[in-house]
From TrEMBL:
The lineage of its organism: Bacteria, Bacillati, Bacillota, Clostridia, Lachnospirales. InterPro entries: DHS-like_NAD/FAD-binding_dom, NAD-dep_sirtuin_deacylases, Sirtuin, Sirtuin_cat_small_dom_sf, Sirtuin_class_U, Ssirtuin_cat_dom. NAD-dependent protein deacetylase which modulates the activities of several enzymes which are inactive in their acetylated form. Nicotinamide binds at F34, I104, D105. The active site is at H120. Its cofactor is Zn(2+). The gene is cobB. This is NAD-dependent protein deacetylase. One of its GO terms (molecular function) is NAD-dependent protein lysine deacetylase activity. Binds 1 zinc ion per subunit. NAD(+) binds at A23, T27, F34, R35, Q102, I104, D105, H120, T190, S191, N213, I231. Zn(2+) binds at C128, C131, C149, C152.
Length: 238
């Protein structure tokens, strides 16, 4: 029985699936992964992405942060791909209970997924640091320099978790809850190198841990089923 057939069978037999995904789920929608070789390193910036996307850089050089952020992080024309659509379909069929994602692009929701736990926040939520007013991604994209609140003039910060910032506690607890109760955990499009997110899979107690990735990860040996390939292509088979 090849990997895809096993995957199909397991999905058929399960009604409490959780999907845990990373940047590889969105690269198939044309959103660059700045950790990959052809990611954001072919750049016109004086600092590496990890530096620019850090809390201390944001505090020190907001204008430079926003120049990069508008240019590279706001991919508002991106559309959900086969993986996003299949996961929404599995949720609608009552099989998938939650999507836990490291992505900030909102494509899971755009595909129709309802229960999406965004570990690293979302570019679609931005708030004034002075009065708390909320703004969408479009507002940030159309602003120039440091975006400011149209009500109080305070500076606006994206609701995304920057390097050096902690994850939202409630989102983490929810993710732990869903993963620890799942009968099947599908992990796709993530290098499993970013903590604390990668540590979440330690909470899975079942025996159907599926890893779908184009490259190897440090946790391959723990998978009950390992499939190397494109997450969209693999999930489309289900």
């Amino acid at each position: 029985m090849d990997g895809i057939e096993t995957l199909k069978q397991w999905v058929m037999d399960s009604d409490n699936i959780v999907f845990f995904g990373g940047a590889g789920v969105s690269t198939e929608s044309g959103i660059p992964d700045f950790r990959s070789v052809d990611g954001l390193y072919n750049q016109k910036y004086d600092y590496p992405p990890e530096t620019i996307l850090s809390h201390s850089f944001y505090m020190r050089k907001k204008e430079e942060f926003y120049r990069f952020y508008r240019d590279k992080m706001l991919c508002l024309d991106a559309k959900p791909n086969a993986a996003h659509k299949k996961l929404a379909e599995l949720e609608a069929a009552g099989k998938l209970k939650a999507v836990v994602t490291q992505n900030i692009d909102g494509l899971h929701q755009a595909a129709g997924s309802k229960k999406v736990l965004e570990l690293h926040g979302s570019v679609h939520r931005n708030y004034c640091q002075s009065c708390g007013k909320l703004f969408d991604a479009e507002y940030i994209l159309k602003s120039s320099g440091i975006p400011t609140c149209d009500e109080c003039g305070g500076s606006i910060k994206p609701d995304v978790v920057l390097y050096e910032e902690g994850l939202d506690q409630q989102t983490l607890e929810d993710a732990v809850y869903y993963i620890s109760h799942a009968d099947m955990l599908i992990i796709g499009g993530t290098s499993l190198a970013v903590y604390p997110a990668a540590g979440l899979i330690d909470y899975y107690r079942g025996n159907k841990l599926v890893l779908i990735n184009k490259s190897t990860t440090p946790l391959d040996s723990r998978a009950d089923l390992l499939i190397q390939g494109s997450i969209g292509a693999v999930l489309s088979e289900v």
